[in-house]
Write a structure and sequence with these properties.
By secondary structure, the protein is an alpha+beta fold. The strands form three sheets. Strands 8, 9, 10, 11, 12 and 13 form a six-stranded mixed beta sheet that branches. Helix 13 (373-385) packs antiparallel against helix 14 and helix 17 runs parallel beside helix 19 (478-490). The chain is 52% helix and 11% strand.
Length: 546
């Protein structure tokens, strides 16, 4: 990330230091301004100097004496004064002494800024809200290749319905999507006030990218018919002007507020995945990738599915990222997700060890980033896979409190309900996950959970339908093949059951009924009684007993 060790603030050095981007904030040493999403923040000069010093020296822990020498010029300062200024620096960037997500105290060592920081290639303008709605924000010197990673502006959606009364709904979609995208870890999203200065104007997306120093531009439109709403969106690379992704969907008009929530949730989830892919492709062109660039490449491989060769590639990228930046939570989370993908897909002897490794990694992630919603859901999967379903459901509920759009929290809760003997609740949770994110990269897992719940309830034909959907969504999800074989065996589709079983065993030759039995993740009597039906179906399909 281009770390520099500098022991003086920009004011002392009398030279230009370009803006720093982190966690939705911009710290501009040249203007001596701190902005969040384009909004100027109030900050005392001394606190600004301290924050700048910590950011400049973010590659190391700085001691009390170093802070006093740089910020207070060696003057005698009490511990309480220093502590109050550190707390003020935290408060200025939305941090606190409990979370310490950006400014961390290391006992008996000092302070370190641990947030992910991007450096601009030129000064950023301070005119985030032009005096006139007809003014255009001034162009920055920065160019889009060096704009912050995951930086995006959501331009005001266009109202193609011809009804001015619908403007409030269309603007509401734009505003809510801007808010929800800012929840993506590490994202830099231009504030609503700045984005809306472009409302009603013909724009050149390349120029917008240069003006706002962002990598991506999202455009959209809403068209209302008599009883249907059509939404079109497109994600554009602000550097090249190329279209990276487009989506169109139609919804029957019901309650507009519920409809707005669903539209925003679907877009936010889809964009989260698309932005990771886009960042991974950028990283492939970098000769010496840093930790975050390696992380994005690892995530791109995870997105391909849980095949062993894909997980091996992902693990390699995450381990290289951790080697470069041991204190970064994202590569640790990536490594945990690899272990989980393998542990919950391939029933093998090392499954308990994989789950233990994943849990240790996730505990470290949550110590670094306690509000990481994805980490809470990943921990829930570990807990549910080790006979702690109630704790796992609570972790999913915590994740939804942090990110209401996190569809996978609903999908994982579906699994937990099943493990507690409440399989009749599973399908509703899966359907909620699919409503929020119908093309989610892990939707195949949710569909598999729904299929298992149907087997546990004796609804075998319904189970076949869900397992077919799961395999269609991702053919690398091996356990769904085995479950489909079991379901086909139970409905006496003997020939097809055998064919599916042979396909599954070709993907995982070591799978046996005994290994599947030993992998039961719950001791709930109702769950175990229903699971006996799956064992029966696997035997009918021709799966080896041991």
């Amino acid at each position: 990330m281009g770390y520099n060790t500098v022991t003086s603030t920009s004011a002392e050095a009398g030279r230009l230091i370009l803006p720093y981007f982190f966690d939705g904030y911009v710290l501009d040493p040249e203007r001596r301004e701190l902005r969040e999403g384009g909004v100027l923040q109030s900050i005392e000069p001394q606190v600004f100097d301290l924050l700048e010093y910590l950011i400049i020296n973010r590659n190391r822990v700085v001691s009390r004496d170093e802070m006093l020498a740089a910020v207070w010029k060696g003057r005698t300062v009490s511990d309480s004064t220093l502590s109050s200024r550190i707390n003020a620096a935290r408060a200025a960037v939305g941090d606190n002494g409990n979370e310490q997500k950006l400014v961390r105290t290391l006992l008996r060592k000092g302070i370190r800024f641990v947030g992910r920081v991007e450096e601009a290639s030129g000064p950023v303008t301070g005119e985030e809200t032009p005096a006139s709605a007809n003014e255009t924000p001034r162009t920055t010197k920065a160019t889009s290749p060096l704009a912050p990673r995951l930086s995006i502006v959501v331009l005001p959606f266009k109202n193609f319905g011809g009804d001015s009364d619908q403007d409030y709904f269309v603007d509401g979609v734009t505003e809510s999507l801007t808010t929800d995208l800012s929840r993506i870890s590490g994202s830099f999203v231009i504030a609503r006030n700045t984005a809306f200065t472009f409302k009603g104007k013909a724009v050149d997306v390349k120029q917008v990218g240069r003006q706002l120093n962002v990598r991506y531009v999202l455009e959209g439109s809403v068209q209302r018919g008599s009883n249907k709403l059509r939404v079109n969106v497109q994600l554009i690379d602000a550097e090249s002007g190329n279209h990276l992704w487009a989506e169109r969907f139609d919804k029957a008009i019901a309650d507009l507020f519920d409809l707005q929530d669903e539209i925003v949730a679907r877009l936010a989830n889809a964009l989260d995945a698309e932005l990771v892919v886009a960042e991974a492709k950028r990283a492939e062109r970098v000769l010496n990738p840093d930790a975050i660039e390696l992380y994005f490449q690892g995530m791109a491989w995870i997105g391909k599915g849980p095949a062993p060769e894909y997980m091996a590639r992902a693990r390699d990228y995450f381990e290289r990222a951790s080697a470069l930046d041991p204190d970064s939570s994202e590569p640790l989370l990536g490594r945990a997700r690899v272990e989980l993908a393998l542990a919950t897909t391939f029933i093998d002897e090392v499954r308990p060890a994989r789950l233990a490794t994943a849990e240790a990694l996730l505990n470290k992630v949550l110590s670094l980033a306690p509000n990481n919603a994805v980490a809470h859901v990943s921990l829930a999967i570990v807990q549910m896979s080790t006979n702690r379903a109630s704790a796992g459901i609570a972790a999913c509920e915590r994740a939804l409190g942090l990110d209401r759009n996190l569809a996978n929290a609903w999908g994982v809760m579906a699994f937990g309900k099943q493990l507690l003997g409440n399989s009749e609740q599973t399908e509703a949770h899966v359907n909620e996950a699919l409503r929020l994110s119908p093309r989610d990269l892990v939707a195949y897992r949710w569909m598999n959970h729904a299929g298992v719940s149907k087997l546990l309830l004796g609804a075998d034909e319904d189970a076949v339908t869900w397992f077919r959907r799961s395999i269609e969504a991702n053919r690398n999800h091996v356990i769904a093949h085995f479950h489909l074989a079991a379901a086909l065996g139970l409905v006496s589709a003997t020939d097809e059951a055998g064919l599916v079983a042979r396909t599954a065993l070709a993907l995982d030759p070591k799978f046996t009924l005994l290994r599947y039995r030993l992998g039961a993740p719950s001791d709930n009597p109702m769950y175990l009684a229903g699971r006996e039906r799956i064992y029966e179906g696997l035997l009918k399909a021709g799966i080896p007993a041991d």
